[in-house]
Amino acid sequence: MSQVPAYKRILLKLSGEALMGDDSYGINRNTIEQIVAQIKDVVDLGVQVGIVIGGGNIFRGVAPAASGMDRATADYMGMMATVMNALALKDAMTKAGLIARVQSALTMQQIAEPYVRGKAMQYLEEGKVVIFAAGTGNPFFTTDTAAALRGMEMNVDIMLKATKVDGVYTDDPKKNPDAVRYQTLTFDEAISRNLKVMDATAFALCRDQHLNIKVFSIFKQGALTRVVLGEDEGTLVHC
């Protein structure tokens, strides 16, 4: 039986920490290959995929030095860390047989294209994966906010926030075995219950623009495909 995706175009938000695997920092090659394999599965279903990547796995190594820095300078360093991750992700995708393009919100012509909305949408329509690097290009904004912005600019059907936990729970499932996963939540419920789904600015943007968010675990085998097929995986946060 053919599998019909529930979404035509998605924005996947990957944290930099997701690329570390069990390492304390940096990029774990096996982990990045496993993530790319999941992305390839949904691309093969005909789904258009945009990705916003964080930089925590690289930036945490310089965080102690950055603690006394000017905030804007530290944020620009973090943006450059996301570009490094984007290049690593693109390389792994190329080796897996995917065609990927890196677009950076900071100008780095030798290694990445500048972010151009029309060009990015063209790439998506051609079946290429577009990796959006350098956040919004502005300090004081997180990569969660960048994901919300790019998701809206690309007219995606849903934003998928990949985490280490398979959804949003009533409590920390690692500490409380009785914690229950929410199947669905409204934005207002998530706010009133103080559930940290994502950065508050990004969350407000998604709510105001009616961009639904699905929180799921990228480390659960086949989870991304199940999300794209509309199955009961993770937690859907909706209006």
From TrEMBL:
Pfam family, one: AA_kinase
Ranges where the Aspartate/glutamate/uridylate kinase domain occurs: 8-216
Oligomer status and interactors: Homohexamer.
Regulation: Inhibited by UTP.
Enzyme class: transferase
Metabolic or biological pathway: Pyrimidine metabolism; CTP biosynthesis via de novo pathway; UDP from UMP (UMPK route): step 1/1
Purpose of the protein: Catalyzes the reversible phosphorylation of UMP to UDP.
Top-level taxonomic group: Bacteria
Main location: cytoplasm
Record CDD domains: AAK_UMPK-PyrH-Ec
Positions annotated to bind UMP: 55, 75, 136-143
EC code(s) of this entry: 2.7.4.22
Similarity comment: family membership: Belongs to the UMP kinase family.
GO terms assigned for molecular function: UMP kinase activity
Lineage of origin: Bacteria, Pseudomonadati, Pseudomonadota, Betaproteobacteria, Neisseriales
Subcellular localization, as worded in the UniProt entry: Cytoplasm
Identification of the protein by name: Uridylate kinase
Binding site for ATP: 13-16, 56, 60, 163, 169, 172
Catalysed conversion reaction: UMP + ATP = UDP + ADP
Native species: Vogesella oryzagri
Residues in coiled coil: none
Keyword Transferase: yes
